[in-house]
Automatic annotation (TrEMBL):
GO BP term, pick one: proteolysis
Listed transmembrane segments: none
Organism this protein belongs to: Anaerococcus tetradius
Stored InterPro entries: ClpP/crotonase-like_dom_sf, Tail-specific_protease
Gene Ontology molecular function, alphabetical: serine-type peptidase activity
PROSITE patterns: PROKAR_LIPOPROTEIN
Endpoints of the signal sequence: none
Official protein name in the record: Peptidase, S41 family
Residue ranges of every copy of the Tail specific protease domain listed in the record: 235-446
């Protein structure tokens, strides 16, 4: 063996030994730390916490423990490892965990039967057989995606890495919400980080603390989220591609200010949200609409929930006025398909009021407003369309929207063995007309087949007014 080969061989051995030493040292540190838990066996002596310990809690125990926290804990996040292939029994256990959560929380089984002639819960044996037939973890993931497609709801899915990471970063900014902090810890568990190859996220103690789980569905717009143009003579156009996160506000505010400073030039404003699949409720509730309206706007929605651990976590947020359905007389409220409510336990009357933002002298557009919609309008964008219609803020033109915009947001849950994250909504949301928004998405005031047809319709309406 020549000198260069010997040196190379020695370097390889040295690197291997160094790696072994590092792993052994990391393991020793972890074992030492694990021996230094507080008397409850939860928080380490240095005030840090292993997220995997979250599985030791019942929901009631977690809420008691959470109330004793004065600040978010520093998380112990061991290095990500390659996940081991699951056994058949572990995949079935994960499926059963998923199925029980959907059974106990999902609000749209009645809608599924009426719209799609499907009894999801009755398909348990079929779905279990599909899982048992999986030969590896990738087949299991694809099978679970297929099962979730039968729920016919875009909030219900197996999450990808990008979504999981964005959710962790978003939830890191609000440890003041017990349900958000619970899910934040859950997503930081080793099994999740191994599955998705994520190092983990610490709490952001400098962030504001008024964020909402209804905002935790993310846009995919990289730039130019809001665009201002002239659709036709006397008609301004604001194209809103996504209900964006707060990092877009400064950029979008420049566009809004340009329009508002020139609003006197236009007799009508068309807000185009066609193709907008949602994002953050805060975008239109706290940013877009307050800039455009000249007076307060209000709608009332009716929300229903099943009793479950997941609901208990959400209701622990004191800002929600939730009551037991058995204690409330809703007989005077006009609601479709009240037979569905026999399976629900809690009720929330949501009175949503948006006030104008008067901080800028150019706030508010006093002319006629029109909202352009289509079947791709969903989630937070659907919530916007529904609010605008029932608050008489604008005339809707286009096609029926996609629905499921009246909700408290999504639940992010974790399969115990695979670490796969699955999401779903637990809110049966009725709009002000008493219709289930998922079953009866917002209908336009005026049907239109195309953008050009919609602008022509606005021109005709302006002519009639003139």
């Amino acid at each position: 063996m020549n000198k260069k080969l010997r040196i190379g061989f020695l370097l390889i051995i040295l690197l291997f030994l160094t790696s072994c030493v590092e792993r052994r040292f990391e393991s020793m540190k972890m074992k030492k730390a694990m021996r230094e838990y507080d008397k409850e066996g939860l928080v380490l002596s240095d005030g840090s916490f292993y997220p995997d310990k979250i599985t030791d809690f019942s929901v009631d125990d977690y809420l008691k423990w959470y109330k004793g926290l004065s600040h978010p804990l520093k998380l112990q996040l061991p290095k990500v490892q390659r996940p081991k292939e699951l056994t058949k029994e572990q995949r079935v256990e994960d499926f059963n965990y998923f199925f029980d959560q959907i059974k106990n929380n999902y609000p749209f089984f009645g809608v599924l039967k009426r719209k799609h002639k499907m009894d999801f819960l009755n398909n348990y044996d079929k779905y279990k057989g599909m899982v048992e037939a999986c030969k590896n973890d990738e087949e299991f993931r694809k099978t679970m995606e297929e099962v979730m497609l039968d729920l016919k709801n875009n909030h219900t899915r197996i999450a990808d890495r990008d979504y999981v990471l964005k959710t962790m970063k978003y939830f890191s900014k609000n440890w003041k919400s017990p349900s958000i902090y619970y899910e934040f810890l859950n997503l930081n568990r080793q099994v999740v980080r191994n599955r998705y190859g994520i190092d983990g996220v610490q709490s952001d103690t400098e962030a504001k603390l008024d964020l909402d789980r209804r905002s935790a569905i993310f846009d995919n717009i990289s730039d130019n989220n809001l665009e201002f143009d002239e659709a036709a003579d006397g008609i301004a156009l604001l194209k809103v591609k996504s209900m964006a996160s707060s990092d877009k506000y400064s950029q979008d505010l420049k566009v809004l200010k340009e329009f508002l400073q020139n609003k006197h030039l236009y007799k009508a404003l068309a807000i185009d949200i066609r193709g907008n699949t949602g994002g953050n409720m805060e975008y239109w509730q706290n940013f877009l609409l307050p800039k455009l309206i000249t007076g307060p706007k209000t709608v009332t929605n009716n929300l229903f929930f099943k009793e479950s651990d997941e609901s208990k976590l959400i209701f622990a947020d004191n800002s929600l006025n939730v009551e037991r359905l058995s204690n409330v007389d809703i007989s005077a409220i006009k609601l479709d398909h009240t037979d569905d409510l026999k399976r629900f336990d809690f009720y929330m009357k949501e009175v949503l009021t948006i006030n104008p933002d008067t901080s800028d002298k150019d706030y508010g557009y006093p002319g006629s407003m029109y909202l352009l919609v289509d079947g791709e309008v969903f989630s937070a964008a659907e919530g916007f369309a529904n609010f605008v219609k029932y608050s008489n803020t604008a005339t809707l033109i286009g096609q029926n929207t996609g629905g499921d915009g009246i909700t408290l947001g999504v639940i992010n849950s974790v399969m115990p063995n695979s670490g796969l994250v699955f999401t779903y909504t637990n809110t049966l949301g009725y709009d002000p007309a008493g219709k289930i928004n998922e079953e009866n998405p917002t209908a336009p005031d005026i049907l239109s087949k195309s953008y050009r047809d919609s602008i022509t319709t606005i021109q005709q309406l302006m002519g009639a007014k003139n």
